[in-house]
Each structure stands twice: as C-alpha cells, then as structure tokens.
Design a protein that fits this description.
The protein is an alpha/beta fold. Helices cover 61% and strands 11% of the residues. The chain has 21 helices and 11 strands. The chain has helices spanning 3-18, 46-57, 71-75, 99-111, 131-140, 172-175, 187-197, 201-209, 229-245, 251-254, 261-281, 283-288, 293-300, 304-343, 349-365, 371-394, 401-438, 442-453, 455-464, 467-477, 481-494, and strands at 36-39, 60-65, 78-85, 88-95, 116-121, 142-143, 146-147, 152-158, 179-182, 216-220, 223-227. A 5-stranded parallel β-sheet has the order 2-5-8-1-9, with helices on both faces. The chain has a two-stranded antiparallel sheet with strand order 3-4. The protein has a two-stranded antiparallel ribbon with strand order 6-7. Helix 1 packs across helix 2 and helix 14 packs parallel to helix 18.
C-alpha cells in the first residue's frame, strides 16, 4: 500500500489498541496488541508519518534507530543482586533499566501523556547480539524482565533486503506476532504531502514531467545509486533557503541530495530552464495583470515541457498566496476565540498570553512538524503581547479595554480580507493570461486540476470562492462541474495526509 494508506492503517490500529470498555480496560488486551511492522524502501516517509500520527492523535512518541544501539543499551547493564530461594541466598544476575524503556518513562514524565508510540527504526538491520533481545521485545514487549508501560504501542520499521545488505530476515514465529504493513512509493500521494509542505515549485513541476525520477534505486559499477522522496524534500528545503541568501543551486549541489548521477544532472539542467522561464515570462507581472501580449504569444508556441514549467511557476506563487490567507485566517479565528473567552470572563489577557506562550513552547519542544500551526500559534502570542502593550501605553481604562481590543482585532480581520482579495485577483489574472496563451487546452485543464489538488489553493477556493476558477471549469468540463468540483475540493481537503 502507499504511505498515506499505511498512515491511516496505523492510526486506526492505534485507536483500536487504546480503546477501553466501560470498566476502563483495553478492549484489545495488551498481549493481543500486535506490534506494527512497517516494511518499505528507504526515504519514502515512514518516520515522518509517525511524527504526524503522534501529533494528530495527541499521544507521546519515542523514536529510536536501532542500528545505533548495542545489546547493553537496549537490554541494560548486568549487575549482581542477592535473592533467597527455599531459604537459601543466591547471587543472581539482574539488569539496569533498558535505555529504550527508560526513554518512554521520561517522555511520560515530561509530557504527562501516558499513552504513546514507541517507534523502532531499522528493526531488521540490528547487530547479531541484539537480534534475540529485539525479537523477544516484539513478541513480549519486554527487555529482560522490564515491561513496556501499558498504553504504549510498538511500531517498527525496516527496509527490504534489496535495499540493505545487512538486513536480517524475521522467522515465522516473530512474523506471526506482528501486524505487517508493506509500503511502496507513490508519487501522487507524495505530491499531496508536498503541496502541504510547500515543496519547491521547481521540484514539483520537474517531477510532473519526469515521474519516473521520483524514486529510483539502481545497482551500478560504483554501487547502489538512488534518489528518494526524502532526498527531494531535503533538496527543496535547501533550495528555498539558498534563494533567500542569493546562492546558486548547481549540479554539484543537487548531487549531494539526488545520488543518482543521471537524475541529478537532468534536474540541474531543468533548474536552469526553470530560472529562464521565471525571467522570460515574469510571473509576478502575470499575477499583477501587467503582462505583455508577447509573453502569451511566446508561451503559445512553446514546447509542452516549457508550458508545464510556466504552469509550475504560476501554481507555486498562487499556492504561496493562498497559504498566506490560510495562516491569516487561522490567526483571525484564534484571536476571535481569545476575545470571546475574555468577554465571557473565562480568562484575562495576561493569563491568556501566558497560556499561549507556554503552549507554543510545548509544541516546539515536542518537535512539531506542522509549520502552519506553529506560525499561527507564534503570531497569536505576538498579537496578544502587542494588545497588552497597546493597552498599557495608552493607559486604557479597564471598562474600555475590551472595546479597544475589538478595534485592534479589526486590523487582523482586514489583513485577512486584503490577502484574500489579492489572491483572488492573482487567480483571475493567471486565468486571463493562460486564456490568451493556451485557450481551452489540455494545459489549461491541468492548471485547473492542480489548483484543486493543492491543499492551499483548494482551501482558498472552498472558503473564499473564485469566479474565474468556476467559469473555466464550467467551460472546460461541460457537465454540472460547479457542484462536482466543490465536492472534489472538499474531498481533497479531507484526504490530506
């Protein structure tokens, strides 16, 4: 199955394992809660979905890469203790607490969350001395005589033998005690994730043309060469930062992430074309509505790959604008809830600010990967702090404080409205340009489809509408598309990983 389906399967298993009956006991006894064994190629997102699942379900997460551990760190160190049997004292070997089990207890103490996931990566690449202990753990959830705390679910991940020479095969006894999920790479699923994560537009448009280069592992005279989903994402992160610093991304940089020479070379060449398209077509002018007719004529006569590159540039900029609206909308909603709580006497501005700052610190300490939620939470604390400073500087009387806060909040409401209006204009201008350049072509259909597929642009259209979008889809798809596309947008939003 693909990684999105695997994530849902693990979430469902987690819900089932943690479900309790009317007496407070787990509906599935811990002895029957099989560890989940996630098998799949490296770099397709196995670790990332564990972080997402823990964050989305509110449980704890402790992760270990087992190739970094020895038998002693997993099992604990031996020591001698005295025990009496049948009236006689004996010296007996005991063990200190396993480092892994201790980490689970530390996480419980740190967060106060008593249920969670213990994620053990590279489970089938462990040393020979550690293997018996790990197989015992998968079967019994114990290291020596130390039990994994109740309420913690074991998820292990490994790679098939074709990707790692040190892989050890599990025996039937072990496999019969785990819930095995085999995962394969899937570009369409990764693309949904990539849109939400803000993967660089050049990566997305390139892979749309060269889907066969999304994930490859090849045996060569120089050993295995590969390109993975992880490599594309990490390269994208670097590209975003390099752009802000004015640094070039050339073939030598690309090869550090895409370790398959011909793919790295091909993508580096595409990057040069992508930058050329950016300069020639002046995407900012297109979205501002100030484009020259010659640009549309140039695109009309361009090869298909060039058209896709320009579409990628437009879609990337539109997604950025829609993401800005998404964040401002989340901020406005959060501040509105805060003001309601203050009006109803549930809290004060000072207490609310302290609570929000503490919650943000906890999110960051937990390693939250939801950048948009972190952005909204950080801006919320900034605005609440600014509200408090304004009231203090203006020496606003207590009886007038809430009215003043309402006026300050209107700035955030207006900022959201201005950003939404700008994104709507940019969408209209993009459609106008593409009408002139492409007409009712397959590229135009692709553009409308990608707007629906992208989390942020589809969210924007669903919540703020876009007349140009609906008009073009009515014209391109012919059959009652207005309602149908709204349903597709909502389904795409709900199915985001």
């Amino acid at each position: 199955m693909n990684i999105k389906r695997a994530k849902n399967e693990i979430k469902n298993a987690l819900r089932a394992y943690l479900a309790r009956d009317e007496f407070g006991a787990y509906r599935i006894p811990p002895i029957r809660q099989r560890p989940i064994l996630l098998m799949g190629p490296p770099g397709i997102g196995k670790t990332q979905i564990m972080e997402q699942i823990a964050e989305e379900t509110g449980v704890g997460l402790v992760s270990y890469t087992l190739t970094h551990h020895t038998r002693q760190s997993a099992l604990g160190l031996p020591y001698i203790e005295k025990q009496r049997f049948d009236g006689q004292e004996y010296a007996v070997t005991a063990y200190t607490m396993s480092e892994i089990i201790a980490s689970v207890h530390r996480e419980i103490a740190r967060t106060g969350v008593r249920e969670g996931i213990l994620f053990l990566d590279e489970i089938n690449c462990i040393s020979e001395t550690l293997t018996p202990m790990m197989l015992q753990f998968l079967q019994c959830k114990t290291f020596g005589n130390q039990q994994l705390p109740e309420g913690w679910v074991v998820v292990a991940a490994g790679n098939p033998p074709e990707y790692n020479k040190s892989v050890r095969e599990f025996d039937v006894v072990t496999l019969d005690r785990v819930k095995r999920i085999d995962v394969t790479e899937d570009f369409s699923v990764w693309k949904e994730y990539a849109h939400r994560r803000g993967i660089h537009g050049a990566v997305l448009s390139y892979l749309e043309i060269r889907r066969e280069h999304f994930y490859r592992v090849e045996a060569t005279a120089d050993g295995l060469q590969f390109v993975t989903a992880r490599g594309w994402e990490d390269l994208s992160e670097l590209m975003h930062v390099y752009e802000t610093l004015g640094l070039p991304v050339d073939r030598q940089v690309v090869e550090q992430y895409l370790q398959l020479a011909r793919v790295a070379s091909d993508f580096a060449g595409y990057l040069q074309l992508y930058e050329k398209y950016r300069r020639v077509y002046r995407v900012d002018e297109i979205l501002d509505g100030t484009w020259e007719r010659v640009r549309a004529s140039e695109l009309a006569g361009a090869p298909f790959d060039e058209k896709l590159g320009v579409l990628g540039l437009l879609l990337s900029k539109l997604a950025e604008g829609a993401r800005t609206v998404y964040r401002l909308d989340g901020l406005a909603d959060a501040l509105h809830r805060d003001l309601l709580d203050m009006r109803e006497g549930k809290t004060t501005l000072g207490t609310l600010l302290d609570d929000r700052q503490a919650a943000l610190a906890r999110r960051r300490a937990a390693g939250s990967t939801d950048r948009d939620a972190l952005f909204i939470a950080a801006r919320e604390t900034e605005r609440l702090s600014a509200f408090r400073q304004t009231l203090a500087l203006e020496k606003t009387p207590k009886g007038q404080a809430f009215e003043r806060l309402g006026a300050l909040f209107q700035r955030d409401v207006q900022a959201r409205a201005d950003a939404a209006a700008l994104t709507d204009r940019q969408l209209a201008n993009a459609f106008a340009f593409l009408d002139a350049a492409l007409g009712d072509s397959q590229e135009m259909v692709l553009f409308a489809t990608e707007l629906t597929a992208n989390f942020f642009t589809s969210w924007f259209i669903q919540n703020f509408g876009c007349e140009a979008y609906f008009q073009h889809n009515d014209r391109l798809l012919f059959d009652d598309t207005h309602k149908k596309l709204l349903n597709e947008i909502e389904q795409a939003r709900q199915q985001q990983p």
